Amino acid sequence: xxxxxxxxxxxxxxxxxxxxxxxxxxxxxxxxxxxxxxxxxxxxxxxxxxxxxxxxxxxxxxxxxxxxxxxxxxxxxxxxxxxxxxxxxxxxxxxxxxxxxxxxxxxxxxxxxxxxxxxxxxxxxxxxxxxxxxxxxxxxxxxxxxxxxxxxxxxxxxxxxxxxxxxxxxxxxxxxxxxxxxxxxxxxxxxxxxxxxxxxxxxxxxxxxxxxxxxxxxxxxxxxxxxxxxxxxxxxxxxxxxxxxxxxxxxxxxxxxxxxxxxxxxxxxxxxxxxxxxxxxxxxxxxxxxxxxxxxxxxxxxxxxxxxxxxxxxxxxxxxxxxxxxxxxxxxxxxxxxxxxxxxxxxxxxxxxxxxxxxxxxxxxxxxxxxxxxxxxxx
Length: 379
Fold this sequence. Notes:
Layout: H1 2-22, E1 24-33, H2 40-60, E2 63-64, E3 67-77, H3 82-94, E4 99-102, H4 106-119, E5 123-125, H5 132-135, E6 141-143, H6 148-161, E7 168-172, H7 176-191, E8 196-201, H8 210-219, E9 223-227, H9 230-242, E10 248-251, H10 260-263, E11 273-278, H11 286-300, H12 308-325, H13 330-338, E12 342-344, E13 347-349, E14 362-368, E15 371-378
Parallel strand pairs: 1-3, 1-4, 4-5, 5-6, 7-8, 7-9, 9-10, 10-11
Antiparallel strand pairs: 2-3, 11-14, 12-13, 14-15
InterPro entries: Leu-bd (IPR028081), Leu_Ile_Val-bd (IPR000709), Peripla_BP_I (IPR028082)
Protein name: Branched-chain amino acid ABC transporter substrate-binding protein
Family: Belongs to the leucine-binding protein family.
């Protein structure tokens, strides 16, 4: 009889557990970035932004369609390689994720976007700036930051109008991001009356730039623009100093990181570098961003690199759309996401008909005393 009572008790507990599970919806959020290779510090920064958002959502006990939601992170590493990027995308589709935040790089996000589109899964890219990403016409594709046409064009005009550059050399790393940004910079500089005296290219794994920089030195440029990432820009700056090249150095958000002074190994003189980040917060948003930075450092023991606030906001805006739609089903919350207005740590988030962020900001920086220093926020 006691044994029968025990069985009855177990069965009752099982019924309670099943009832609890029936009242819970599991929401899988995929994230893809280069968490290995030279850009791993940026990829991990992005991943931690998503992780922070998911932990907060679970702590709050968010409900979707009357059921408590439990958010899960499915994180993939694409190493910045397009083939690995599409493989990671397919893996997330097969896992039936409810949405994807990523990828870090334009070169992986663009081919992956077709896979997400075919599956009907919303993709919010936190740091992708190549205009082609949203120009493909996919309804599932969204971007959190201004694109290269805005960023590159602004830097090109700044080189001519503010830095008074008479002669400019442009170098890119031949990635979708680097080459696209360099092209837009060149357009902006030429449009402002600048003279591009030389165009060179390297690759995103290169460490020796002696041949390129020797040729560049002979051109006597006022400004050298590099389209690429900090892992390449750092050694390039070091070798520029060794060769006695005194030109100003410019770059986009891949260059504009907290790690750049370390990667340049002490070769970064004050006010030599001018760079821009796709994104930025106005003075009214500063306190919110400062709190995010402090909370992030407390949680992960590291400073924000660039885009973790944007991956955090991307995750939160995706969850907000699910709550407002009353469903985590991509087909049901996608239309809500497309028309959303969400107040995040980076500001107000809303998308245009292409999926681009509305009224995207850019932040111009330089470096002083081995620290990144803000110059201005422009739109």
